[in-house]
Input
Amino acid sequence: MRVTATSWALVLSALTGGSDTEVAAWTTTTATTTPIGASSTKTISQKLPTSSSLLVASQDLEETLEARIVEDPSNRSEQQSHTEQEHVPYVIARGDGSTGGGGVPMPRASKDDGLRRPKVNAEMPEGRPSWFRVPAPSLQAESRYNEVKDSLKNLELHTVCEEAQCPNIGECWSGGTGTIMLLGDTCTRGCMFCAVNTDSKPPPPDPFEPFKTAEAVTKWGVDYIVLTSVDRDDIPDGGAQHFAHTVELLKHKKPELLVECLVSDFQGDLRSVETLATSGLDVYAHNVETVERLQKFVRDPRAGYHQSLSTLEHAKKAKPGLYTKTSLMLGLGETKEEVLQTMRDMRAIDVDVVTFGQYLRPTENHLSVVEYIKPEVFDYYRQVGEEMGFKYVASGPMVRSSYKAGEFYLEHMIKTERQAATASSVGSDPI
Output
């Protein structure tokens, strides 16, 4: 596609509400014709104002661009025109008010494909089902909930429970544990389902965070802890060594503690995966999040289905016997067969644990819920998962990847299997 400077002026005018005079200075600095591509996208992002008026849903902007852009009609087939429309530059809304990241413009689905896709500002299912009920946090000053909250505050630690607005925070904190989020509270990616803050250049990690984490967890007196983090694409190893130091300190303070690390894909860097996998942790977790077809609509463009699977596969290769775990959100328009195929793909790389939970929209600027999945469907996936050979399947509307009830089961399962392995080894010893 080739777009004239006048065409870009129309686009800018549509986006900013400005007049032709206001954008004239920009158009005069543009070549007579500009092919749409990476370079033109970069130029536009540098020139456009950063006011909140530009933070529009991607599918709305796509419709505006299609209506405004003047195309060069020469040497174009109908198929070429359709393909090029999918590569029109766009500005995308983020739930926290910042720009960048998160999905791509919604392509026009063929009328007969029968597949659903999530969108921002789409119509939500009417009402919230009755099965969405969670315990409220305790209001008593001496409760375990407040004890956990105070210890996190005093040590300046973050939790995914708060940052991602997890609905189970009352249950988990009242049980004396939380999921600590390392590497700060600001993510370098912008997935369209997540409420965590985003920025291309977050503050550097706190070098004392591993020590603070070990101190907090030891005080809680738990036997199983989950560590997670934001994506830190600005750090060469993605924060893998920071995680490894934290695990080593935890194991030093309490050797019997079971540690699960729910981490990013490290941009597919298998060296970073290996750094963490061999650090002494017990469960290596990374979330695939959704089925393959919906990846580009739900996750940041830097994430990917096969990239995620490759990290889970390499973790087990780097440390044989290491448990691997992943999670999927349901209710984003996926089909039953797509979910089952994802489960087959997970078993093909020997993933041990999978969890399924209902996607809930954190704000109106995030993807709308396509469907509320019924409890019996979650139970169906649990049964199928167990038949496929997963060692543990947690499946339910309020289940999350780091979830207290699941941690209890994993703790029991890991300890039982290790005790059995030790007994078998002693029994086979000829001495």
Notes: The chain is about 40% helix and 10% strand. Residues 2-85 form one domain. Confidence is low (pLDDT under 50) at residues 1-110.
